[in-house]
Amino acid sequence: MGVVEWIVLAILGLLAASLRKLLTDELKAWLPSLIEMILLFAVKKAPVSLRDRYAEEWRAHLNEIPGELTKLSAALGFVCATRKMNAAIGQLDTESAEAPGDDPLTVTIVRSLTLDDLKALANSRVEPPRCPDPWPPLCNSASDGKHEVPGAALYISTRYGVHTFQGPCTLCRQWVDTGEIFD
Amino acid sequence: MSAQTLKVLGALLSDPSDELSGAEVARVTKLASGTLYPILLRLEQAGWLTSAWEKGNPHELGRPRRRFYRVTAVGAKRAKEAFEELTPMLGRPAWA
């Protein structure tokens, strides 16, 4: 190998070393923001009624952990946890609830209604939307309403499911989280 | 009841202060956060655990408040029963 090749190799080595340091520094600088973004994503996916709680609890959890990579791992764990927590609490998968479109899940955000309207809506059976037939075998659809009034909030959510290929949509679950309104 | 659930209950029951934050439970049990928090939530929903915020204001503390978990009387009773059921099985051959 000639002198020129050695010089080129040396220059490339120096460049790689400095680039590695640059990348490491860059990653270190961005990690806290990345962790915060993942935490916010996890909180957004958490059951609606528990979001505020876990936003603070999980921040405190991360605060107790030394090392940015361990924090990153824990934050990613929170995202995994939300899926199981949603199943445990029996609420709507928030991801699906917030993604209307081609998905069989239909979400209606109810706005500008009075409290009485919302009370009536909470007690009424909402007509299920059209379900694809015969596939998928289990169709979920939802009606989701949220109305905020000063000091309190009413949350209504109704889920429908098809138990058979040809059968009608049937009401599976309905719940109302009234916050302080009906206390 | 899963082994992880028993680990969580064991950690909370064996702690002298009787209450632990989620991060402390994770440290003791070596469970990942993705496994731990669903267990804590399920146990809390079942009434085996209760949780409360750390005393103080986040602004005064200069950090987010921790949430402490404590085993309820029902939880302690059920956990002891589960541990007692498991203890005779430990050390016994699987086919016995």
Quickly describe the structure.
The complex is a heterodimer of chains A (183) and B (96). By secondary structure, chain A is α+β, with helices and mostly antiparallel strands.
> Order of strands in the sheet with the most strands of chain B?
1-3-2
Question: What is the overall silhouette of chain B?
Answer: elongated
State the strand order across the main sheet of chain A: 1-2-3
β-strand amount of chain B:
5-15%
Count of helical stretches of chain B: 5
Intertermini distance of chain B: 21 Å
Number of strands of chain A: 3
**First-last Cα distance of chain A:** 84 Å
Name the average pLDDT of chain B: 85
Range of strand content of chain A: 15-25%
Spans of chain A with pLDDT under 50 lasting ≥5 residues? 91-113, 125-183
User: What pair of chains forms the biggest interface?
Assistant: A-B, 25 and 22 residues
Order of helices and strands of chain A: HHHHHEEE
Summarize the helix and strand pattern of chain B as letters.
Answer: HEHHEHEH
